[in-house]
């Protein structure tokens, strides 16, 4: 790595740590003074990032917006619980958002109890006998391939496992 690249890397890590320190200071101002300006800066920085992350994980825009709003409201009310020694402000805020999304998914997926005796679901996989036969065949084939000379084994593996000509 050349000198210029190292200097850029050091400056980038200084900026990242300065940002983390700045965000920690904003959280402290929110916790101790209920500083709306500090909250606005955090919201403007992390809000869009949280929403984008949630949408990249499959949430639709409305759900991502709702969870982001809830997460940032939690940041406002729980700022006093942030501990710098346990992680960066960003990690703390994203963890809040992640947990809120998980809670939202759990609430949405609650389904009424259905007695299993009332369900008539056809089995889609192999039965026990079929599965045992397949496993026995796999064991025999694996053992036979292992006993082949190296070049023959390589040809078999390339042909049948890696699907090569």
Largest sheet: none
Sheet/helix structural class: mainly alpha
SSE string, helices as H and strands as E: HHHHHH
- Categorize the overall geometry: elongated
How many separate helices?
6
Name the helicity range: over 70%
**Count of extended strands:** 0
Percent of residues in beta strands = under 5%
Ranges where pLDDT stays below 50 over 5 or more residues in a row are 10-15
In short:
The chain has 165 residues and is mainly α.
Structure in words:
The chain is mainly α and 165 residues long. The protein is built from 6 helices and no strands. The chain has helices at residues 3-33, 36-56, 61-78, 89-108, 128-147, 150-161. Helix 1 crosses helix 2 (36-56), helix 2 runs antiparallel to helix 3 (61-78) and helix 3 packs across helix 4.
What are the main properties of this structure?
0% strand; 165 residues; mainly alpha; 74% helix; elongated
Topology:
Blueprint: H1 3-33, H2 36-56, H3 61-78, H4 89-108, H5 128-147, H6 150-161
Helix pairs in contact: 1-2, 2-3, 3-4
């Amino acid at each position: 790595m050349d000198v210029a690249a190292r200097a850029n890397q050091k400056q980038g890590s200084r900026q990242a740590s300065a940002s983390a320190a700045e965000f920690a200071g904003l959280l402290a101002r929110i916790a101790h003074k209920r500083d709306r300006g500090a909250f606005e800066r955090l919201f403007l920085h992390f809000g869009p990032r949280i929403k984008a992350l949630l949408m990249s994980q499959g949430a639709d825009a409305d759900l991502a917006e709702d969870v982001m709003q809830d997460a940032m409201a939690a940041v406002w009310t729980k700022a006093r619980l942030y501990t710098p020694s346990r992680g960066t402000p960003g990690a703390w805020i994203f963890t809040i958002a992640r947990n809120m999304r998980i809670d939202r998914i759990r609430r949405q997926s609650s389904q009424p109890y259905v007695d299993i005796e009332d369900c008539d679901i056809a089995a889609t996989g192999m039965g026990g006998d079929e599965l045992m036969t397949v496993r026995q065949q796999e064991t025999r084939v694996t053992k036979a391939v292992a006993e082949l000379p190296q070049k023959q084994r390589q040809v078999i593996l390339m042909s049948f496992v890696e699907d090569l000509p």
